[in-house]
Amino acid sequence: MFAVKYFVSNGIKVESMLTEPYPSVYNFLKKLQWDEILSYDAIGSISGDGCSHEIINAFFSRTDIDFSKHKLTIFQIPAGSACALLENSLKLIGKK
Question: What is the pTM (predicted TM-score) of this model?
Fold first, then answer.
C-alpha cells in the first residue's frame, strides 16, 4: 500500500488494518482501551466516507473520553467515489 510506505519512509510509525464492512471499524474502536488510544498521535483512514464516519461516530459515542482535555487527530485520505465528508469539512473552514 503506497500510503503506508510513504509514511514509514518519512519516519512515521504506522499500524494498519484491512477493514470489513460496517460496523467492524466502529466496534474495534469502541473496544479499544483508552490508554491504547492515547498511544497514538492520529487515527485515520484511506477510504470513502463510510469508514471515516465509523471512526468519528465510535469516538464521539464513547463516555470515557474528555475531548476538552485529550486531543486526538482524526484524518481521512480520500479514496471513495464522493468524499463528501472532506468536501463539507473544507467548506466549513472556507477552503472550498
Answer: 0.74
DSSP, collapsed to helix, strand or coil, labels residue 96 as coil
Q: How far apart are CA 63 and CA 11, in angstroms?
A: 33
Q: Are 52 and 22 in contact (CB under 8 A)?
A: no
State the pairing for strand pair 42-47/73-78: parallel
8 A C-beta contact, residue 58 and residue 30: yes
49: which 3 cell numbers?
Answer: 466516507
What are the residue boundaries of the structural domains of the chain, listed by start?
2-92
Residue 27 has pLDDT above 90, yes or no: yes
Strands (E), 9-93: 42-47, 73-78
How far is residue 37's CA from residue 10's CA, in Å, rounded to a whole number? 22
